[in-house]
Amino acid sequence: MIDNSIFNNKKVVYHTLGCKLNFAETSAIGKQLSEEGFVKARPAEQADLCIVNTCSVTDVADSKCRQAIKKLRRQYPKAIMVVTGCYAQLKPQEIAAIEGVDLVLGSNEKFDMLKFLRDLEVGENKQIHRADISQIKQFRPSCSQDDRTRYFLKVQDGCSYRCSYCTIPFARGRSRSGTLTETVEAARKALAAGAKEIVLTGVNIGDFGRGTKESFFDLVQALDQLPEEDIRFRISSIEPNLLTDDIIRYVARSRHFMPHFHIPLQSGTNEALKIMKRHYTRELFADKITCIKHELPHAFIGVDVIVGIRGETDELFQQSCDFIQNLDISQLHVFTYSERSGTKMLEIEHQVPIPERKRRSEILHRLSDQKTNSFYEKQMGQTTQVLWESRRQEDKMTGFSSNYIRVERPYDRKRINQLETIRLGNWNDEKSALRVEETGGRA
Fold first, then answer.
1. Averaged over 308-331, what is the pLDDT?
2. Residue 137, in any domain of the structure
3. What integer pLDDT is reported at residue 443 of this predicted model?
């Protein structure tokens, strides 16, 4: 059993895979451990404890998790190895079988890590603590900081949908969230800590307020009323059926919410959406894009798409491509389908061969590049605000405009975490960002 006294000044390494929600939760775990005396290990230091927060959205995600665990074990041979997250909830025995893993914690147990560390017997007997998914009901707020400028605020967890390809409900439980008052207070704390930009994140954030008679629109309005001047909010991925026209119109006139949306489409045909058991049609999705562009012509719109699901014939894929081609969007996030045990999708006989899945992915990645380049080029010459980040690449620094254009300028340490009004110029040499053409006054 671990003595509480050994927590003091012990070195810990965190490794997070997957979504921004995972990063927010790792941050919350880190705060708990820090309060008990753990210190984050520096790059060259040996660690006493390794914590891996896993993802399991695809087979590739599972593989990356296993590789990360093995690499950390080689790098920190004497450290206690704790694995948690979605992969740990779904396949705890598979993780426990990896050499060097000491403790496996499910989704309900990750925030009680200190309790399990105190009770841990290090040795050959792996310890697994994982509640049944029906018992995962509590909402744990969390917030993570990225690059000293952007914070990711968890406003919701779990999902009550049952999409045929997805294991998230099995890994995180049903949809739940904190109250409006609690969530706004968490945002206030992030602002007090120096946040200039907060991204609202979760599994299905549009479902905020389920069980409390509050709504995501209520949250957007409450956050927009915060009195601070130099703050920005972004809405992370939100289901199209939950992105109401009222929300879109409100963002268009908002003080703090940026003209930036990320909306999962998954497929551009109603036949495939029905197979996936999605909650909307392609016509509804197209209406949302039209509404956004009417209210916010310069808005950045990112879209999730899955290729190669069971039942996606060549004809359906081509129809989906044609539909996406005609959407006025800015970027695609393309996911290649992989079979997940326990999902309804496995009941469909028609399978797309792996090489064909990869081919379809490459087609949509090329289409995404075309749309992103076109969107950037339309923004050249526009005046906008950029929040400069701390990362330095040679003699350059970058930041994002209000509508999520990556912008580059010569490095200036004084500009870090500052909002600045600039004019967007041409591409940089790598065609990865737009240069600053003309600088105005700081915001």
1. 98
2. no
3. 44
Alpha helices in 296-415 (DSSP H): 314-325, 354-379
Q: Structural domain of residue 198, as residue ranges? A: 143-379
314-325 and 354-379 helices cross at what angle (nearest 10)? 10
Residues 6+ apart with CB under 8 A from 208: 155, 156, 177, 183, 202, 214, 215, 216, 219
**What is the rounded distance in angstroms from the CA atom of residue 153 to the CA atom of residue 205?**
11
What's residue 429's pLDDT?
Answer: 94
Residue where one domain finishes, among candidates 88, 106, 131: 131
User: Do 89 and 182 have their domain in common?
Assistant: no
pLDDT of 24-80, one tens digit each? 999 999 999 999 999 999 888 899 999 999 999 888 899 999 999 999 999 999 999
**CA gap 159, 170 in Å, rounded:** 9
Tell me the pLDDT band of 126, cut-offs 50, 70 and 90. Answer: confident
> How many folded domains does the chain comprise?
3
CB 165 within 8 A of CB 306: yes
| The two structure tokens encoding residue 335 | 């996911």
Residue 151: how many other CB atoms lie within 10 Å: 24
Structure tokens at 145: 């900081």
Check: CB of residue 87 under 8 Å from CB of residue 56: yes
Q: What is the number of other CB atoms lying within 10 angstroms of the CB of residue 31?
A: 12
Domain CATH code at residue 417: 2.40.50
Residue located via tokens 């590049």: 369
Contact 275, 309 (CB under 8 A): yes
What pLDDT, on the 0 to 100 scale, is given for residue 352?
A: 98
For the entire predicted model, the pTM comes to 0.91
Q: Are residues 271 and 359 in the same domain?
A: yes
| Strand-pair partners of 82 | 51, 103
